[in-house]
Design brief:
By secondary structure, the chain is of the alpha+beta class. It has a single domain, classed as RRM (RNA recognition motif) domain (Alpha-Beta Plaits, 2-Layer Sandwich), CATH 3.30.70. The chain has 3 helices and 6 strands; from the N terminus they run αβαβαββββ. The strands form 2 sheets. Strands 1-2-6-3 form a 4-stranded antiparallel sheet. A two-stranded antiparallel ribbon has the order 4-5. Strand 4 and strand 5 form a beta hairpin. The longest helix has 12 residues. It starts with a helix and ends in a 12-residue tail after the last strand. The model has no long low-confidence stretch (mean pLDDT 93).
């Protein structure tokens, strides 16, 4: 799988920014089929940093309604990537 298929986008939320500042952890939306080894390799190659650990979370899509029509958003996967000490924290605006 291509590194740009593995990492879909960075998640810039209040929780994600707080984790980035305090715990040296980046948050990404990743492909649901990607495993931790692929995510680690993609982050290391894309940002040129060393990864300490990867934690993932699979989330189910929410029910959404428009009048009498309803459907579900797609299921997705989130990854928390902790960088090793001494690594430069990448800024998403530079990508």
């Amino acid at each position: 799988m291509n590194i740009y298929e593995v990492i879909r986008r960075p998640l810039v939320t209040e929780k994600g920014v707080a984790k980035k500042e305090t715990e040296r952890t980046l948050c990404f939306e990743v492909d649901p089929r990607a495993n931790k080894v692929e995510i680690r390799g993609a982050v290391e190659k894309l940002f040129k940093v060393k990864v300490e650990e990867v934690r993932t979370s699979s989330l189910t899509g929410k029910l959404r309604r428009r009048g009498r029509f309803s459907g579900y958003r797609p299921d997705w996967k989130k990854a928390y990537v902790k960088l090793k000490d001494g690594e430069k924290m990448p800024e998403f605006a530079e990508i």
